[in-house]
Amino acid sequence: MNSVNESLNSVNESLNSINESLNSINESLNSINESLNSINESLNSINESLNSINESLNSINEPNGTLVNPKGLCYLVPSLQAGNVF
């Protein structure tokens, strides 16, 4: 009986060790998840900024919904430098 008890204690210690390892892995995964969430928020912010820039460029390139020039920015910058207002 004593031998069985010792074996069960050994199994319990092993399971406790496994549990601690799994807890450590879980904490690491939670940390990684938080980092990925932060990166995702940053990328969303960048995407919103790019969408805003894109909308501005679209409004310059397509006044009244009509495509003025398919080359867009090739003509926009020199025209702005020449003082033209759109």
From TrEMBL:
<protein>
    <submittedName>
        <fullName>DNA polymerase III alpha subunit</fullName>
    </submittedName>
</protein>
<feature type="domain" description="T-SNARE coiled-coil homology">
    <location>
        <begin position="1"/>
        <end position="60"/>
    </location>
</feature>
<dbReference type="InterPro" id="IPR000727">
    <property type="entry name" value="T_SNARE_dom"/>
</dbReference>
